[in-house]
Amino acid sequence: MKLRRVLMALPLMLMLTGSSSFAQLSPGRDWRRAVAERLPLYGHRNWIVIADSAYPAQSTPGIETIVADAEQAEVLQHVVARLSNSKHVRPIVYTDLELGYLTEMDTPGVDGYRELVASLFPDPKPLSLPHEQLIEKLAKAGQNFQVLIVKTRMTIPYTTVFFQLDCAYWSAEAERKLRSQMAQKGRR
């Protein structure tokens, strides 16, 4: 009887402690509010992912998955607008390499979706990596940093858009210059 009570309480305990991304899977959650709450907290090395409906719930502790009862285009446009207005982060955008190989015959609607993505990210264009490599990047990032995955109603494969957040007010070139100066001064 005592074991049964513990087992019945386990899902609630996991939700309260946040120790399982499975417990964080929350259908019906207000995705707009989640993005609005997370974005000010997030900085470089955090990720926001807008995923199709078959995207897996990853088990890495730092990955939070929520389900949006919305079309992917709506969620994607909303997140792009929020990131565009952010003063502290800018996205490095990734898409699945496989998206470029899908045909309209096999996946109706994919041409229109690719046009949407191209219009949202004209320059720089998104980086494309194989889907499995992007999932591995998220798993690795989720070991130390928070990742928000928003699953949508999209039913076309390989349409997930990955936003790796970077610092908006400090460039990669400025970081390289700083590290070079530090190394030179360290040798003196």
Q: Can you give keywords for this protein?
A:
alpha/beta, 188 residues, 44% helix, globular, 7-stranded mixed sheet, disordered N terminus, RbsD-like fold, 19% strand, single chain, 7 helices
**Rg for CA atoms:** 19 Å
Q: What general form does the structure show?
A: globular
Question: What's the count of strands?
Answer: 7
Which structural category do the helix and sheet elements fall into?
alpha/beta
Biggest sheet layout: 7 strands, mixed
Question: Helical percent range?
Answer: 40-55%
What is the CATH topology?
A: RbsD-like fold
Q: What does this protein structure show overall?
A:
- It is a single chain.
- The protein is 44% helix and 19% strand.
- The protein is α/β, with parallel strands linked by helices and 188 residues long.
- The chain has a single domain, classed as RbsD-like fold (3-Layer(aba) Sandwich).
- It has a 7-stranded mixed beta sheet.
- Helix 5 links the parallel strand 4 and strand 5.
- Helix 3 (31-41) packs parallel to helix 4 (72-84).
Summarize the structure.
The protein has seven helices and seven strands. The protein has 188 residues and is an alpha/beta fold. Helix 5 links the parallel strand 4 and strand 5 (127-129).
Write the layout of secondary structure elements.
Blueprint: H1 2-17, H2 21-24, E1 26-27, H3 31-41, E2 47-51, E3 63-67, H4 72-84, E4 89-96, H5 110-120, E5 127-129, H6 131-141, E6 147-151, E7 161-167, H7 172-187
Parallel strand pairs: 1-3, 2-6, 3-6, 4-5
Antiparallel strand pairs: 2-7, 4-7
Helix pairs in contact: 3-4
